[in-house]
Amino acid sequence: MSCSIPIPHSGQPDSLEGWSLPAWLYSDTAYFATEMERVMRPSWQVVCHLSDISQPGDWHSFEFLGESIIVLRGEDAKVRAFHNVCRHRGSRLVNGASGCARKLVCPYHAWIYDLDGRLAGVPGKSDYPGLDLNRHGLAPVDMEIWHGFIFVRLEGDGPSVAAMMAPYEDQVVPYRFEEMRALGRVTIRPRAVNWKNIADNYSDGLHIPVAHPGLTRLFGKSYGVEAEADVDRMWGDMMDRPSAKLSERLYQHYLPHVPHLPEVNQRRWLYFKLWPNVAFDMYPDQMDFMQFLPISPTQTLIREISYALPDERREMKAARYLNWRINRQVNAEDTALVAGVQAGMASRSFTIGPLGESEVCLRAFCRRIRELIPEARLEQAPAAGWNHHEI
Questions:
Q1: Which value, in Å, is the radius of gyration of the alpha carbons in the chain?
Q2: Cα dihedral 115→116→121→125 (10° resolution)
Q3: What does the DSSP 8-state code read for residue 241?
Q4: Can you say whether residue 345 is alpha, beta or left, with left for phi > 0 and alpha for psi between -120 and 50 degrees?
Q5: What pTM was estimated for this model as a whole?
Q6: Each residue of 248-291: pLDDT tens digit?
């Protein structure tokens, strides 16, 4: 760590409080590698819902930071998570996003694994004297099931998903996540921006009345933001006044009453971002998961899927379609916004910018990054080799 990094002493105010992260953090290769180690690898990532792997042998895969992870249901009905790596020569065991198998058979040399991860068979086992099958099962991955959703974590011992979301547990329970089922399949949208620009935009409330006229027509001035230690929360309450836009007006009209939700949630769109890159949007009609998966300093994949409770009412089907229409436009607007920010950050004229007192989520995000990576306090990138300890 460079001694020139301006770290505040305990109990003293931080001179960088109220200022954004410096622009070089959004394109620098060395910093990106450090960020993946200290921020992303210890983070929880959602893979799928229990209903997506309902039968023994069902599996789902998840690609993250060069790792391939599989979650699968065993013959004993338990759900487990493993690295998708054969213990013989490192081959991937399964390919694709999902599937079902009675056993996992390596396509390279046919080593066989039971659904609980145990090494069950090795062709030509006599050729491996002393090989202990019990010590060469699949490498497990830390896993947590939260309200029916399966999360995994590559490393670390930080708080659980349940602990992170504890401040909002009473708001989540009425939505009955455990009973939800997928609407369609996982989609992947590539974006030529740094993942933090997408995360910043998601938790930014000030741009809503400026850049999202549809949301403004729906919510008026009700959009709010707040930040807890590990979670950002945003929300907007639909107005009774019919929107001038057809899709929005029809959504307001067709959205039916949802008996299991409190009255305050009947017309509320509720957004959460779980540190650092998992977001989920909770509507009366459905919920959408999004993850901002870093690929490089300037490349990100947005992974998303929708879930909903079974509801065959025509009004609900119409509301879900109209929800998609409205949010397709919002996504297009956000795509243009973050592309503009990424391009602007390449200018030598920009280093850091001020954050208003109402920008509580962005302030909290910057604070957390600076705590984990002190070099993020520097306005300019340090000399090459500063992160050699990360390699």
A1: 23
A2: 150
A3: S
A4: alpha
A5: 0.94
A6: 999 999 999 999 999 999 999 999 999 999 999 999 999 999 99
